Structure formats: structure tokens, C-alpha cells
From TrEMBL:
Keywords: Membrane, Transmembrane, Transmembrane helix. It is found in: Membrane. SUPFAM superfamilies: SpoIIaa-like (SSF52091). This is Sodium-independent anion transporter. Its main location: membrane.
Amino acid sequence: MTMTNSAPASRLRDLRQNFLAGLTTSFALVPECIAFALVAQLNPLMGLYGAFFICTITAIFGGRPGMISGAAGSMAVVIVALVVQHGAQYFLATVVLSGLVMLLFGALRLGKLVRMVPHPVMLGFVNGLAIVIAMAQLEHFRHDTPSGPQWLQGSQLAIMLGLTLLTMLVTWLLPRVTRAVPPALAAILGVGVLTQVLNVPTPTLGDMAKIAGGLPLFHFPEVPLNLETLKIIAPYAVLMAIVGLLETLLTFNLTDEITASRGQANRECLALGAANVVSGLFGGMGGCAMIGQTMINLGSGGRSRVSGVVAGVMILLFILFLSPAIERIPLAALAGVMFVVAQETFAWGSLRVLGRVPKNDAIVIVAVTVITVFTDLAVAVLCGIVIAALNFAWQHAREIRAEVSDAGDGENKVRTYVPHGTLFFASAAHFLELFDPKRDPRQVVLDCRHLRLADHSAIAAVQTLDERYARLGSVLQVTGLSTRCRSLLQRAGIEPATRQA
């Protein structure tokens, strides 16, 4: 009887926890989406509509429950020039096309490529975005003046700092008292009520933008459907898709690690693509996974699809019915929560291991972190992967070696080389240096039982070696080839083992 009653109670507890996590996350989504819309020089409602569609659709159909997607800044910054030069309608067409690119990526089952991202790149990605999240909050400590944005001063700055620190303290300390309510939610609502009761003069969400609006309406982008339009939007669409997929798949990996579970990467790509197509057709911004909001959701206990759906639907409710209340939330409370998120997102352990891991890995961690902060995520991750790949190639190129033995004497002397390692573009030159055709006898055996031919450079190296011995009238016999390596050589038309002396 106890077991029968415990199951519904457990489900109800999980539902409540995920609902509160989604509610908490929705508060954090609003200022981010508004800010990103303003960065892209778009109507703030476009950011909120985008957050609603992308968050809700990916939560329902995506492959990673618990991960939060929305109108992301990493995608907003790459389309500023497009909006300035061609306007919002071309931007919406770009969002639709980027969604189709994401759908193609998922349909081709390319989500597994995220497994090729080395762990040092992941650490650099997490650290870089944590710094970006923290730096973004500093904008709340500035205000517009006739001479341009200026830092807050005097009592305004003191109040802002005090409320931010109070929010951070509540977020840190409340879990030691109770876990009945997500600490971020309690901090935001608590500081909000405090400022209203005491009539504290401090910037609020309503100072950023008014969020009241109606239901999003279907509206196909008003652009000419011709090749000229495609030439304009295609480069931006592809770039948006690459950035969105990278951030989504890396956040996907991080969520897998935190939840100790495994999601479906290709399904997430398909859901994200569909969400971007729908968002563009209903006047919303493009988006992808958002690491800060995902960390808030996970930290608040959000593990199921319910939390993501609640976060997305609450955005729409804010727009339609709750804007007067939401616009009163102090920016200091939201900044405080995001500072805590940045602190918890940063992989502090990576600082301790920098001196213990190989130097090349340490360079990758630092490089990806710095590049993420000063450029963008796509460039940082690609640079990190290139550095890691070059390091891998260099290490393997140095490891190739050969054992040399002789049998017989005089005209019947045979020298056997037994190379060990992987023969590929980076090791080809060193491989050829292992042989001495001028001093070797006329009969030479290349025993490949411990050698793996990896690419065309490996085939070319074997062919070059064969030609060097042939010019001197010597015979190179290749033995011990695996089925795959023999097939590679035969396809290239190389049969060094068949030549007779």
C-alpha cells in the first residue's frame, strides 16, 4: 500500500519541482531575450516571441529534456549587419533558412560530430561563456545620458550593488535552509517584493523595454523569392545555423554530464531547426540552447520536458497578461542570479589542472576561453578543435618508428623494416627518413603488420619509397598489409609487392 501511494506522490513532487524550475527560468529568459533583440536592432517582442517558440518546441520535441533554448545572443550578433542593411523582413527570412539548414544537419545525423570536440575545448567553452554571462550583466550598471552610456554613480550605484549582492546571498544561502523553492526564484521574487514595499528607486525590467503585446501571428517574410534574396540571406543563415548548432550541441554535452544521462543529439538538431522555422514564420528571432538559462533550470531541479514547456509558455503569458508585474522586477535581482550562474558555470577545477595537464591541452583551454570572450563561440570552438587536431597529428607523427633486421649475406642479403605507428600526412616525411635506399641491399622488405595507412599521403609515401628503390635497381617487397591497407594501395594502382628483382 505504501508503494502504491508513493509513486503518485513522487510524480506530483517531480511535476511541482519542474514547474517551479521552468517558472524560475522564464524570469531569466526575459531580460536576455530583450537585450539580444536590442543588440540585433530589432523590436524586443521579436526576441520574446522567439524565446516562446524555440523554448517550447525544443522542450516538447527535442532530444535533451532539461536543456533550455531561446533567442540567443550568439546568434543575434552575427545578423546585425543584415538587419541594418536590409531590414527585419530579410532577417526573418534568414531565420527560416537557418532553421532549414539545422533540419538538414539533423536529418543527415551529423549531431554525433559533437563527440569529436575534445574535453579541453569543452572546458574553454564553458569558461568563456561564464565570463560572457558575467560581463553581460555589467550593462545593468550603466545608464543612458546625453553624452552616451555612463556607469551609475552615488546612491544609484550603491542601491544596485546592494540589491545584487542580496540576491546572490539568498541564492547561495537558501538551499542550506530549504529546497522547497528554487533559490533563484525566491531571490528574484523576494528582492522584487522588497523594492516595491520599500519603494526603492532602482532600474527595473520595464526600463529596458515594454513587453506587453498580443499573440504572434503567422506572417511569411515579405522578401522577393528569387536568387538575389538567396545570395543576401544564405551566408547569414549558414553562419547562424553553425553558431546555433555548436552552442546547442556543446550545451547538450554539458547537460548530459550534469544529469548523468544521455540525450539524442540528432533529434535535438531536428527540433531546433523546426523551432527556428516556426519562429521566423511568426515574427520571432532565431535561437539555440542557452547555457545560462539551462544552468538555472538544472540548478532549480528541472529535469523533464515540463520545465522547458513551462518556461516557454510563461514567456507568452508575460507578453499577454502579466507584463505590468514582470516589468517591475529589479534588474539587480536578475543580474544577481546571472552572476551566480556565471560563478557556478565556470569550471574552476580547470584552473587547478592547468599545471598538471599537457601544455598543449592547457593552451587549448585558455585559447578557447579567451577567443569566446573576445570574438564568438563558433570561432573559438573551431580554433580549439584545430589546435587540438594539430597537436594530435604532431604527437602521432613523432611516434612512428621502425625496427631493422638483416638476413643472409652477399647478393642474398635481405633487409627488413618493421615500422610501428600510423602513416598519415604528418608522419609521411619522418617515415621516409627511416629508410636508406643508397646503403640498403638490393632486397628490401617493408613489413606492415604494425603499420596503419590512414590517408592518401600514406599511399603517396609508400609509392615514393617504392620509386626510390626502383631507381637504384633494388626491390621493395611489401608484406603484412591488412585487408583495408591493401585495398587502399590497390585502388591507387600501387602493387610494390609484385615486382620481381
